Automatic annotation (TrEMBL):
EC identifiers of the protein: 2.7.13.3
Name of protein: histidine kinase
UniProt superkingdom: Bacteria
Any Gene Ontology biological process: osmosensory signaling via phosphorelay pathway
Organism: Adhaeribacter soli
Length: 241
């Protein structure tokens, strides 16, 4: 049985977390308009000076718009992070195998992809949009950071009475061992952000969603090479309240 002091600490922690989420939501929401105004102002100045700007100034404008664009994406990601327990709480049936097949080919776009799915999971009544987001981000990570001509993804599906277990392995470069403890940190990227078109927020949002539903997500490297994510998703969802 939990002691009164421990219960009090837990209640305080929950209150602090709720206040932080509210703060993050308000700040990220209110920052969107002024950042958009900076983008517009830079474009107007560039248009006014068109034909008179030296090459280095043109490059500076390009860098400015690029950095502001990245900031906009980071603000949007922070907004999505704060909304995890607020939105997309409607339940619906999900055929996990079909969903993975659809998402993988959407993420791959025109790239040739080898997708292998083993095991079977019965259709699940769950927070459908949240599970879709999680699966999409894990598949995106397996494809987007894989420079091979044909990305290869192996998915293993298992279930028991309490939860699903979904393992997603790829034939990409894997992760540096020093990066593994930081993978689910907000805005963390293995490579410098200047080399990537990503905010580094996807896996942090995935982790928060999985924690919210009472599941578990781990990341590691396959002995034969490539990254491996293991997702445990409970069959019983927490109350939307």
């Amino acid at each position: 049985m939990m002691q009164p002091h421990a219960e009090d600490c837990q209640e305080r922690l929950q209150k602090i977390n709720a206040e932080f989420e509210e703060f993050s939501y308000i700040v990220s929401h209110d920052l969107k308009a002024p950042v958009r105004a900076i983008t517009n102002l830079a474009s107007w100045i560039e248009e006014d000076l068109e034909g008179t700007l030296p090459e280095d100034s043109q490059e500076n404008f390009r860098l400015l718009k690029n950095r502001v664009g990245r900031l906009e994406k980071m603000i949007q990601a922070l907004l999505e992070f704060s909304r995890v327990a607020r939105l997309q709480l409607e339940t619906g049936a999900v055929d996990v195998k079909s969903k993975i097949e659809k998402l993988a080919h959407e993420v791959a776009e025109n790239r040739e992809l080898k997708l292998t799915i083993s095991g079977k999971i019965a259709p699940l009544e769950t927070y459908a949009e949240k599970l879709t987001f999680v699966l999409g981000e894990l598949l995106r990570n397996a494809i987007f950071f894989n420079s091979k001509t044909q990305p290869e993804i192996k998915v293993e599906l298992q279930e028991n009475a309490e939860a699903l277990q979904i393992t997603i392995a790829d034939n990409g470069p894997g992760f540096p061992e020093t990066s593994l403890p930081k993978l689910f940190t907000m805005f963390y990227t293995v490579l410098p952000k200047d080399q990537l078109e990503t905010t580094g927020a996807g896996l942090a949002i995935v982790n928060k969603i999985v924690n919210f539903v009472g599941g578990k997500i781990t990341a590691g490297n396959h002995p034969e090479g490539g990254a491996v994510f293991t997702l445990t998703w409970p069959k019983k969802m927490p109350s939307a309240n």
